[in-house]
Amino acid sequence: MSSSTNIVVGVSASGTVKAGDYGAQESAATDLGFIKGGVSIEHEETSYDIKVDQVLAPIDKVTTDESLKIKFSLSEATLDNIALALGVSVGTGGKIEFGDKTGSIVKTLFINVKGANNSSRKYTFWRCRPTGKTGQTYKRDGETLIEAEFDVLADISKERGKRFGTIEDL
Q1: Distance separating alpha carbons of residues 107 and 11, to the nearest angstrom
Q2: Each residue of 122-154: pLDDT tens digit?
Q3: Nearest by Cα to 17 from 40, 1, 46
Q4: Which residues does residue 48 pair with via DSSP β-bridges, in sequence order?
Q5: CB atoms < 10 A from the CB of 12, how many?
Q6: How far apart are alpha carbons 10 and 118 in whole angstroms?
């Protein structure tokens, strides 16, 4: 039966996006601070149609590719947040050095938002790699946002069907 309590409006009061070292528990993750514009979680699947001569329509589909992308804009323009979006670390002396990198950091992301029926919803993504696609705009009449985008990688230490992460209502 339909219920207005299943309609989710808003994000969360605090701790919306947290990032930890790969495999870290949420209690060891860093709260990335305020965000603006929400959190986008985009899942995409590509499938192959199995067709036979005797039937005009596909008789089955097999998933051949699956991807998950997370996007959000950080309102707190700290060097740590810029480094995270770039996929690098802040070096000694509070300086970011980047360009021509040979690898990228992998993080576990925790996203805490509102859920249906006035619950809290927790997303845990095991292995997230910053895409490096980011931008900051400094302007006179508005705050600087750090755009962050992550690809969720399959965690092959988990069993099939559970390699991206979990979603739960608390």
Answers
A1: 22
A2: 999 999 999 989 999 999 999 999 999 999 999
A3: 40
A4: 62
A5: 17
A6: 11
The C-alpha atoms of residue 60 and residue 168 are separated, in whole angstroms, by 30
Cα first-last separation, the chain: 21
Name all domains of the chain by residue range, CATH numbers in brackets. 11-169 (2.30.110)
Taking the C-alpha atoms of residue 86 and residue 90, their distance in angstroms, rounded to an integer, is: 10
Which pTM was predicted? 0.90
Q: Where are the alpha helices (DSSP H) in 7-143?
A: 79-86
User: How many separate helices (H) and strands (E) can be counted in the chain?
Assistant: 1, 8
| Joined tokens for residue 14 | 């605090």
* Helix boundaries (H) for 54-106: 79-86
More confident residue, 7 or 160: 160
Instruction: Give pLDDT tens digits for 80-125.
Output: 999 999 999 888 888 998 888 777 799 999 999 998 888 899 999 9
